[in-house]
Hints:
With 400 residues, this protein is of the alpha/beta class. The chain contains 14 helices and 13 strands. The protein has helices spanning 5-11, 17-32, 51-67, 95-110, 139-149, 158-167, 196-212, 229-243, 271-280, 301-311, 326-334, 337-343, 371-379, 390-397, and strands spanning 38-40, 43-46, 76-78, 134-136, 169-171, 183-189, 218-222, 266-269, 291-294, 319-324, 347-350, 365-368, 384-387. Helix 7 (196-212) links the parallel strand 6 (183-189) and strand 7 (218-222). Helix 2 crosses helix 3. The longest helix is centred in the N-terminal third of the chain and has 17 residues, at 51-67. It is globular, with a radius of gyration of 21 Å. The model has no long low-confidence stretch (mean pLDDT 97). FE3-S4 cluster binds at residues 79-80, 119, 140, 237, 296-298, 323, 353, 355-356, 372-373, 376.
Amino acid sequence: MILTPEEQSMLAGEQGRAAQTAMRILAALGKIYGAQRMIPVRSAQIAGVSYDNLGEAGLEWLTEMADGGGKVRVPATLNPAGMDLENWQALGIPADFAEKQIRVIDAFTRMGVTPTCTCTPYLAGNLPEAGDSLAWAESSAVCYANSVLGARTNREGGPSALAAALTGRTPEYGMHLDENRRPGVTVKVEGILAETSDFGALGKIIGERLEADGRKAIPWISGLEVPNLEQLKSLCASIATYGGLAMFHIPGVTPESNRYSAPGDSFCVTAKELRSAKHSLTIAPAEEVDFFSLGCPHLTLSEVARIAELLRGKRVSKEFWITTSRPVKRDADRLGYSEIILRSGAKFAVDTCCVVSPIRGRFRAMATDSTKACYYAGSKNKFKTRLLDFDAVVLEAIQK
Ligand code: F3S
C-alpha cells in the first residue's frame, strides 16, 4: 500500500505513540484487504463503548491510547454506552459498573471524541453528505449511511474506527469502492409494509435468505412505497443483524441507485412470509412480559412524541425503557414530552440501550418493536421476546 509522507510519519511514531498504533492497525487492515492507499475520512463513529462488552482489557487499551497522546483529527462520536451517563441509578446499574463505564468515556473524551453515545449519529450532529468517506462501526448506522445517505463506510470494529478518528484516514477497500456497491439481487416485496416491525421483518427475511445462500450480494429492494426515516432505520438494523449486510438499494431512496437497474437474479418476499417472520419473534405471551423497550435503533424525536401522546395521563405497569440519544432527549425535555413520559413511570435510557447495558438475566421477557433487539434479547440477555407494532408496545405497557 502506498502511504503519503504524513502517513509514513505517523507509522514511524513521529506523531506520538497512539497515532503510531492507530496507523499500524489501519496499515494491517489495508494489507489484509488489498487496499492500494489510505483515504481521508469525514467522520468516525466508534463502537466498543459499553464496559459490558469491553471489559478490563478494553478499558486498559483505551487508557493507553489516551495516555499515548491520541487526539482525533476528524469529528468522532460513540456508540451507546452500558448505561445512561446522567441517570444510571434509575436503571438499576451497579455502582462498580458505573465507575468503569465513566472511565471508558473519560478515555474517549481525553482523545477529543464527542461523548454523544448513539447508534443514530445521523440524528445527533454526525450527519454525513452523499459521497463522504466515513469510518463508522455500528452496523445499523453503517447500513443507513451507505444506503440512505449515500456516504461510504465499511463496518469498522471499535479499534479500527478509533484508529481512523486518530489519523483521519481509512484504507480504501470494500464499501469505499464503486464495484462493491452495485446491487446483485432483486428482492420483490409483495404486501403493504407500514410498521417499523414490518420493516424489521423484511430485513430479517432478506438477511437470512442471503446468508443461507452464502451470497454477499447487495439487495435491490423493489415494491415498496418510499419508506420514512423510522422505517428505514428499522430495516437497516435488521438487515445488518440477520444478514451482515452493509448496504441495500431502494430506488428513490439510495442516492446512487439511479446508476443501476434491477439485477436479473431475484426472489420475492410475500405478505405471508412477513407475518410469519414477525410471529417467529413473538414468543412470550403478554402476561409474561416484565420489560418493555422502544428505541432500537435510538428513537427519533417524532417517535418520542408518539410515546408521550400514548402515555399522557397513564401509568405503565412494568419496567419500560425509552432509549434515545442525548440530543433527542434534550429536545424532548424542551417540548414537554419527557415530563409526560416520566410521569407515567416509564424511564429514559439515554446514551445506552437494552442490548449493551448489563441486564443479562434480569428480566424474563421483553416486548419491543425491534427485530434487532429481539435477536440480542434472546442470544445475549436470555430474555424471551414479544415483537409488537410500535404503538402496541406502549399500549400493552399501560396499567389496566
Ligand atoms: Fe442501537 Fe442498541 Fe439497537 S446500539 S441499534 S439500540 S442494539
